[in-house]
Each structure stands twice: as C-alpha cells, then as structure tokens.
Design brief:
Elements: H1 12-17, E1 19-21, E2 25-28, E3 34-36, E4 41-43, E5 46-48, H2 50-62, H3 65-70, H4 74-77, H5 81-91, H6 96-103, H7 107-138, E6 144-145, E7 148-149, H8 168-178, H9 192-202, E8 212-213, H10 214-222, H11 228-237, E9 241-243, E10 249-252
Antiparallel strand pairs: 1-2, 2-3, 4-5, 6-7, 8-10, 9-10
Helix pairs in contact: 6-7, 10-11
C-alpha cells in the first residue's frame, strides 16, 4: 500500500470535519480510507451510508480532530511543547485556574499563552492568504524548485528540518543507487536525506491498521536488508512505525 500524506492534500475545512467529499465517495482526511457513495457499510453491527460511515470511521479511528492534531509532534503543528500541553488541557475543557495548577504556572501565564496563540492564529490566516496569492500570481507552487518539486514530509515525522528538503529527482537518484528492482537495498546510507527516501519506500511493505509482532517485522525487513534491526529502529525513530511500550507490537503510524 502506497504511503500517502492525505492530510496535506486536504483543505482546512476538510481537516476540521475529518473527510473529503468527491463525486463518487468520501475519503478520510487523515488516513485516506474510502467510502463509496451508494454503498452500505457495517460498523459495530450498525448500518451506515457512505456519509455516516466516514464520520463513524473518523470518530472511532481518529477521535476529535483537535485531539488527533495535538497528538502529533509539536514541531509539525508549529507550536512549542508547553503550548501543546496547555492546548490539550484546553481541549479537555479545563479553565485557566485548573490549567495553571496542573502545569505549575501562574494564571497570568496561561492568559499570556492564550494571547500568543490568538496572534499566531491571525498570523496563520495572513500567511495562508499570502501563499495562495503568491501561487496564483506566479503560477508556481512554493514547492516547485528548478531541481524539481520538493516532496511532502510524512505526517508523523519526528524532526522537521532541511533533511526533508527532498525533490523527486533526489528520490529517483537515491532509489536507483541503493535499491534493486525487487525493493531490496544493498547498503543503508549514512546521509539523512537518503535514509528518509529509502524508509519511505520500505514502509510501503506494511499495511495500515494492521498490527505486526516484532518477528513479523523482522521477516519483512530481512528480505529488504540483511541488517533488518537497523532498518526497524530507523522506521520507529523517523516516525514511520509505532511501537508498543513492551516493544513487541508495531503499526504503521497514521
């Protein structure tokens, strides 16, 4: 299954409601699960049309959008860890006094965070308008470079920096240099960009919403590279795979 970043291709409104509507179907904005119109879906022994099913799926698999987004890395959202902690408490309905007590700060500091977050929201609106207007004026996406388009960062990246400044040309050259026609790699590169490119390809060998025991993960990765333990750790480290606390169960990060 191809690893896609569905959320990056969704509008703000689609992210908030949790789904995209096409002519013939509804798609989950977070994982891309498709519900075709005109079909009936059974979920928890109840019947749903496509619209009801995508909403029920979003509720069961991802929860409230605010909680899902706040579960991501703070750097992905553009907030600090302190702001993430406070926003999580706000999302739980906690008042300023309770938040101040739980975080160990003054109420005035909570109010100051509210002010900064409100200003950040206003700046974000202008920034989005700026980028859209720039693209309309130049007829060129900000991701389009002279060396090709910059690829999207995968949604669960654990670090956001220029190591993700990867073009399609970079990807093609790296895959050609390190990976054979069967998807096996002859060497795991030291350079971060090349690692990320190969890990993006390797994660396609795993199915979403499926749990894998460590032995199953090793078996899949051993066909790709002899030092499968290094690849397994890298998939977790770079945010492609989730690992249970006891280290025995793995899932593709959604």
């Amino acid at each position: 299954m191809e690893y896609k970043n569905y959320i990056w291709n969704s509008s703000i409104e689609e992210i908030v409601i949790g789904y995209k509507e096409n002519k013939d179907s509804y798609l989950c904005a977070f994982c891309g699960k498709k519900f075709e119109k005109g079909h009936i879906f059974t979920m928890d022994d109840k019947l749903y049309d496509a619209f009801g099913a995508v909403n029920q799926h979003h509720k069961e698999e991802h929860g409230f959008t605010v909680d899902y987004i706040l579960s991501q890395e703070p750097s992905l959202i553009g907030i600090s860890e302190a702001q993430q902690q406070i926003l999580k408490l706000m999302a739980e309905g906690k008042d300023d006094k309770t938040i101040a007590h739980l975080v160990g700060i003054a109420q005035s500091t909570v109010r100051n965070h509210r002010f900064k977050l409100r200003e950040k929201e206003k700046q974000a609106k202008l920034f989005l308008a700026l980028m859209q207007s720039l693209e309309e004026k130049t007829k060129r996406s900000i991701s389009q470079t002279d060396a090709g388009a910059i690829e999207e960062i995968h949604q669960n990246a654990t670090m956001i920096d220029d190591r993700y400044n990867i073009t399609i040309e970079d990807r093609d050259k790296t895959i050609k240099a390190y990976m054979d026609e069967n998807g096996a790699i002859n060497q795991f590169p030291a350079k971060e960009k090349k690692k990320i490119i190969l890990l993006r390809e390797i994660i396609m060998n795993f199915k979403h919403s499926q749990e894998y025991h460590e032995g199953e993960v090793n078996k899949i990765l051993e066909r790709i590279y002899s030092d499968y333990a290094t690849i397994r750790r890298a998939l977790v480290e770079y945010g492609f795979l989730d690992r249970s606390d006891d280290g025995n169960v793995y899932r593709v990060k959604e």
